Amino acid sequence: METLNYAVLEKSGYKGFIQKEAPIRVLQFGEGNFMRAFVDYFFDVSNEKAGWNGKVALIQPIAQGLTKLINDQEGLYTLYLRGSENGNKVDEKRVISSCACCLNPYDASDYDRIMEIAESDDLDIVASNTTEAGIAYDPACQFADRPAASFPGKLTQVLYRRFQAGKKGIVVLSCELIDNNGKELLKCVNQYIEQWGLSADFRRWINEENIFCSTLVDRIVPGRIRDKAEVEALEAVNGYHDELIDVGEIFGVWIIEGPAGLEDRLPFKKAGVNVHVVPDVMPYKHRKVRILNGAHTGFVLGAYLSGQDIVRDCMHNEAISGFMNRMLYDEVIPTLDLDRDDLMDFAAAVKDRFNNPFVNHELMSISLNSTSKWKARNMPSFLEYIRKTGKLPVCLTMSLAAYIAFYSNDIQELTDAGLVCRRPAGNTYTVNDDRWVLEFYYEHRADSEEKLVKAVLGNTKMWDQDLGAIEGLTEQVIGDLKMIRTEGAEKAYAGAIA
Hints:
The protein is of the alpha/beta class. The protein folds into 2 domains: about 5-280, Rossmann fold; about 285-495, N-(1-d-carboxylethyl)-l-norvaline Dehydrogenase, domain 2 (Orthogonal Bundle). It is built from 23 helices and 14 strands. Helix 12 (about 280-305) packs antiparallel against helix 14 (about 320-330) and helix 20 crosses helix 22 (about 475-485).
């Protein structure tokens, strides 16, 4: 079977939208599954729906990558967006044609091509996702390096070439998973300007004529299809071989922090896609962390003790899904400072996302490092609810008891792999967390519920405060923990929403 390219795609009889030619308007640092299923998808739809007429030149951020595979397929690849919407199974296929090429900056000719694009009047956007470690200042990088080793160093080189050519500033869309990603990237660029002794005029141009946007990205991207038989079946239907098949969930939202007018400069609003320019991205980060991630951490530990193994099955359990919904709608959403309809819509999408028929999301994988997760995802809602109402949130309090139960259920041993506990069903499981957390629970393995709860809530290293000082909390968590241990987590969850 022939490998996908424009000629092969035409022979296959594909009827979807394809744009073969357009000027390069975007330089994208990062060519992996996520960026191709998210950023390049949105640009592709913008070509179709908004007449954007643009292409993306991908840049391989490290010495090894996908450059050859992408170029062999002339930038084309098949994207499957899969999931559940309004309770209905969705499996959408789209051949993405927004990518012009992939360039390896560690190849001399490709490096020169990147610099040519940097000088282009067509270039308007830089997008990036170089992992959380990518936005980091490395003083070993030198201006004369071809290229600088760090991503911010490479970007400074690209922008300096553009400045020298007398071109307009651009929009930088940082997608790395750190807080204030755009601001942190700009900070690194300014450090290189200082280190490399670049001109004051360049510094002014960087900081006044370019827009470095912090963004929040939200789409689960499993990436490659692992099942060989499924790939072969899909390719038989498609009529071509594709080395770059990509898979993402159907849900996707991109929140971009930027000034007034940026929404009209970018193509997404006109295209009608789920991309939004806002003055401050942090409320939307809180929305994601406290609703989506907080839901996970809030119910999975007790759900696992009750006998569940994957997220999707939990959504079909009346007690667990009801517990999650009560926690989100009654306890989390009232603590967030965004439009209530927006929050309700986002929460409604969570159940669909968790009910994805294509993803077997294991509860044990979500359980990793649950101490810091509960602190970051659930504790802010918990404390704000108490501040606003003067009462304990029933479900969030139960989730805290479920966390303690998961970390202390019939502890067997502490090994190099983690803390081995026994599930009520009889099988063992291994808790993974910071070593000091595991050692704490192991040391308290013989404690009564009363003694254990007091030790956990009073551990200021865990929570940066003494949670035991909150009126009524110790007694409530002790009661909840006893219920989980004696009647089971499912009945405890059902009791919390009765």
